[in-house]
Write a structure and sequence with these properties.
This protein has about 130 residues and is an all-alpha fold. Helix content is about 75%, strand content about 0%. It is built from 4 helices and no strands. The two termini are about 25 Å apart.
Length: about 130
Amino acid sequence: MDKKIISTGAIFGMLAIILGAFGAHALKKVLSIEELSAFETGVKYQMYHALFLVLIGTINELSQKAKKTIYYLVVVGVIFFSGSIYLLATNNLTSFDFKVIGFITPVGGLLLIVAWGVLFMNFLKKK
Protein backbone atom coordinates (compact mmCIF):
# COMPACT_ATOMS: atom_id res chain seq x y z
CA MET A 1 0.00 0.00 0.00
CA ASP A 2 2.89 2.38 0.76
CA LYS A 3 4.17 2.16 -2.81
CA LYS A 4 0.68 2.96 -4.13
CA ILE A 5 0.31 5.92 -1.76
CA ILE A 6 3.72 7.39 -2.60
CA SER A 7 3.22 6.78 -6.33
CA THR A 8 -0.15 8.54 -6.26
CA GLY A 9 1.43 11.43 -4.36
CA ALA A 10 4.16 11.66 -7.00
CA ILE A 11 1.60 11.65 -9.83
CA PHE A 12 -0.53 14.30 -8.09
CA GLY A 13 2.63 16.37 -7.59
CA MET A 14 3.68 16.10 -11.23
CA LEU A 15 0.19 17.00 -12.40
CA ALA A 16 0.11 19.98 -10.02
CA ILE A 17 3.33 21.32 -11.54
CA ILE A 18 2.03 20.76 -15.08
CA LEU A 19 -1.31 22.39 -14.32
CA GLY A 20 0.39 25.26 -12.48
CA ALA A 21 2.62 25.96 -15.46
CA PHE A 22 -0.34 25.64 -17.82
CA GLY A 23 -2.29 28.11 -15.71
CA ALA A 24 0.59 30.55 -15.43
CA HIS A 25 1.32 30.56 -19.15
CA ALA A 26 -1.57 29.41 -21.34
CA LEU A 27 -4.54 30.31 -19.16
CA LYS A 28 -3.13 33.67 -18.09
CA LYS A 29 -4.23 35.07 -21.43
CA VAL A 30 -7.80 33.75 -21.35
CA LEU A 31 -8.89 33.80 -17.70
CA SER A 32 -9.77 36.72 -15.48
CA ILE A 33 -7.63 37.42 -12.42
CA GLU A 34 -10.31 35.83 -10.19
CA GLU A 35 -10.54 32.72 -12.36
CA LEU A 36 -6.76 32.38 -12.48
CA SER A 37 -6.57 32.81 -8.70
CA ALA A 38 -9.16 30.05 -8.24
CA PHE A 39 -7.25 27.79 -10.61
CA GLU A 40 -4.06 28.41 -8.62
CA THR A 41 -5.91 27.51 -5.41
CA GLY A 42 -6.76 24.13 -6.94
CA VAL A 43 -3.11 23.62 -7.88
CA LYS A 44 -1.87 24.56 -4.39
CA TYR A 45 -4.24 22.20 -2.62
CA GLN A 46 -3.39 19.42 -5.03
CA MET A 47 0.32 19.90 -4.32
CA TYR A 48 -0.21 20.09 -0.55
CA HIS A 49 -2.03 16.78 -0.67
CA ALA A 50 0.49 15.21 -3.04
CA LEU A 51 3.12 15.88 -0.39
CA PHE A 52 0.72 14.67 2.31
CA LEU A 53 0.36 11.34 0.50
CA VAL A 54 4.14 10.97 0.21
CA LEU A 55 4.39 11.65 3.96
CA ILE A 56 1.64 9.14 4.77
CA GLY A 57 3.39 6.50 2.67
CA THR A 58 6.58 6.93 4.69
CA ILE A 59 5.13 7.00 8.22
CA ASN A 60 5.72 3.59 9.81
CA GLU A 61 3.68 4.34 12.93
CA LEU A 62 0.38 4.37 11.02
CA SER A 63 -1.55 1.16 10.51
CA GLN A 64 -2.26 0.02 6.98
CA LYS A 65 -5.96 0.51 7.66
CA ALA A 66 -5.40 4.17 8.59
CA LYS A 67 -3.15 4.69 5.56
CA LYS A 68 -5.75 3.17 3.27
CA THR A 69 -8.51 5.35 4.75
CA ILE A 70 -6.40 8.50 4.40
CA TYR A 71 -5.38 7.50 0.88
CA TYR A 72 -8.96 7.17 -0.39
CA LEU A 73 -10.12 10.32 1.39
CA VAL A 74 -7.29 12.31 -0.17
CA VAL A 75 -7.66 10.88 -3.68
CA VAL A 76 -11.40 11.53 -3.83
CA GLY A 77 -10.96 14.83 -1.99
CA VAL A 78 -8.37 16.13 -4.47
CA ILE A 79 -10.43 15.00 -7.46
CA PHE A 80 -13.57 16.66 -6.07
CA PHE A 81 -11.93 19.79 -4.65
CA SER A 82 -9.14 20.64 -7.08
CA GLY A 83 -10.81 19.00 -10.07
CA SER A 84 -14.02 20.96 -9.64
CA ILE A 85 -12.06 24.18 -9.12
CA TYR A 86 -10.18 23.59 -12.39
CA LEU A 87 -13.45 23.06 -14.22
CA LEU A 88 -15.21 26.00 -12.58
CA ALA A 89 -12.27 28.36 -13.17
CA THR A 90 -12.18 27.49 -16.87
CA ASN A 91 -15.97 27.36 -17.22
CA ASN A 92 -16.11 30.18 -19.77
CA LEU A 93 -13.79 28.25 -22.13
CA THR A 94 -16.28 25.41 -22.72
CA SER A 95 -19.84 25.08 -23.89
CA PHE A 96 -20.76 22.98 -20.81
CA ASP A 97 -21.75 24.88 -17.68
CA PHE A 98 -19.66 23.35 -14.90
CA LYS A 99 -21.45 25.42 -12.26
CA VAL A 100 -23.82 22.47 -11.84
CA ILE A 101 -20.97 20.51 -10.22
CA GLY A 102 -19.96 23.35 -7.90
CA PHE A 103 -21.48 21.55 -4.92
CA ILE A 104 -18.71 18.91 -4.98
CA THR A 105 -16.00 21.47 -4.20
CA PRO A 106 -16.91 21.71 -0.49
CA VAL A 107 -17.48 17.94 -0.37
CA GLY A 108 -13.92 17.46 -1.61
CA GLY A 109 -12.67 19.97 0.95
CA LEU A 110 -14.48 18.10 3.71
CA LEU A 111 -12.89 14.81 2.63
CA LEU A 112 -9.44 16.43 2.78
CA ILE A 113 -10.18 17.76 6.28
CA VAL A 114 -11.35 14.31 7.39
CA ALA A 115 -8.13 12.76 6.03
CA TRP A 116 -6.06 15.09 8.21
CA GLY A 117 -8.40 14.29 11.10
CA VAL A 118 -7.82 10.56 10.64
CA LEU A 119 -4.07 11.19 10.84
CA PHE A 120 -4.53 13.30 13.97
CA MET A 121 -6.81 10.76 15.69
CA ASN A 122 -4.42 7.90 14.92
CA PHE A 123 -1.54 9.73 16.56
CA LEU A 124 -3.68 10.65 19.56
CA LYS A 125 -4.37 6.93 20.08
CA LYS A 126 -0.66 6.07 20.05
CA LYS A 127 0.92 5.43 23.43
